[in-house]
UniProtKB/TrEMBL annotation:
Any single biological process term in GO: methylation
Stored CDD domains: AdoMet_MTases (cd02440)
InterPro entries: PCMT, SAM-dependent_MTases_sf
UniProt family annotation: Belongs to the methyltransferase superfamily. L-isoaspartyl/D-aspartyl protein methyltransferase family.
A single MF term (Gene Ontology): protein-L-isoaspartate (D-aspartate) O-methyltransferase activity
Protein name per UniProt: Protein-L-isoaspartate(D-aspartate) O-methyltransferase
GO CC term (a single one): cytoplasm
Source organism per UniProt: Acromyrmex echinatior (Panamanian leafcutter ant)
The UniProt record lists the keyword Transferase: yes
EC number, as in UniProt: 2.1.1.77
Subcellular location: Cytoplasm
Taxonomy, superkingdom: Eukaryota
Catalytic activity: [protein]-L-isoaspartate + S-adenosyl-L-methionine = [protein]-L-isoaspartate alpha-methyl ester + S-adenosyl-L-homocysteine
This protein's UniProt keywords: Cytoplasm, Methyltransferase, S-adenosyl-L-methionine, Transferase
Length: 261
């Protein structure tokens, strides 16, 4: 459920993030740009994302090849590198944002891992995560609008029905801001909308060694910005936080506000 424009030097900033660097480039020093890795097929889209340095791990690449975006984006030209509407005032994210998320979370989406996708929308990213965690893992996609749960379930059934048969993916209706503790703790948590403050409830649901990525509103002077934050929980429970990049997401909110906007 992301509408996203990135503000940074893609290759330098993202490479630094994957290396664990704390380097952060101020927005004022960067040019505004959105990467366009358009394809006419799923394979072409994935290849362009990899060539651009955005799709940065082999496992993330394999996931995006195995999950056909056209089964989740039902508008013409589904492989364009931009967000597309799926109804109920939400979108399926641009492919480059999916590539970033899967690359950043690759180490936590290991075989047998548990993952939570907050704001699962079309089900696309949840399905990619389900591919990465394998038949022994499990992904929970959470949305607060029941119709979106129906849409995402249907999309997965048409693309990779064995994910549902193996119970490695489950979509639930709920307030994503509260997470889904019943199936936690999670090795990986992805939040697909911008929170006003970092949701401590979600951090609590991270397993030791787990990672959360979440866009969070940041007020800088007279500007209302968003930082994509990475939160890591060490094996002893210590929490570290890091800014990865500046982004622009739809708000993480309640269903009434979402439908009104």
């Amino acid at each position: 459920m992301i509408i996203c424009v990135l503000f940074y030097d893609v290759r330098q900033t993202f490479s630094a993030a994957l290396r664990g660097s704390s380097r952060w480039i101020a927005r004022d020093s960067l040019r505004s740009m959105a990467w366009h890795c358009n394809g006419t097929t799923n394979q072409e889209m994935v290849t362009k994302l990899k060539d651009a340095g955005i799709l940065a791990t082999d496992r993330a690449e394999a996931a995006m090849l195995a999950v056909d975006r056209a089964k989740y984006c039902h508008e013409p030209d589904p492989y364009l590198d931009r967000p597309r509407r799926i109804g109920y005032n939400v979108t399926i994210s641009a492919p480059h944002m999916h590539a970033y998320a899967l690359s950043i979370l690759s180490d936590q989406l290991f075989d047998g891992a548990k993952a939570l996708d907050v704001g699962s929308g079309s089900g696309y990213l949840s399905a990619c995560m389900a591919f990465m965690v394998g038949s022994g893992g499990r992904v929970i996609g959470i949305e607060h609008i029941p119709e979106l749960i129906e849409i995402s379930t249907r999309n997965v059934r048409e693309d990779n029905p064995h994910f549902l048969k193996e119970d490695r993916i489950k979509f639930v209706v709920g307030d994503g801001r509260l997470g889904h503790p019943a199936d936690g703790p999670y090795n990986a948590i992805h939040v697909g909308a911008a929170a006003e403050t970092l949701p401590e409830t979600l951090i609590d649901q991270l397993a030791p060694g787990g990672r959360l990525i979440c866009p969070v509103v940041a007020i800088k002077g007279f500007q209302r910005l968003q930082d994509l934050l990475q939160v890591d929980k060490s094996t002893d429970g210590a929490i570290t936080k890091k800014k990865l990049m500046q982004v622009s997401y739809v708000p993480l909110t309640d269903p009434t506000t979402q439908l009104r906007n």
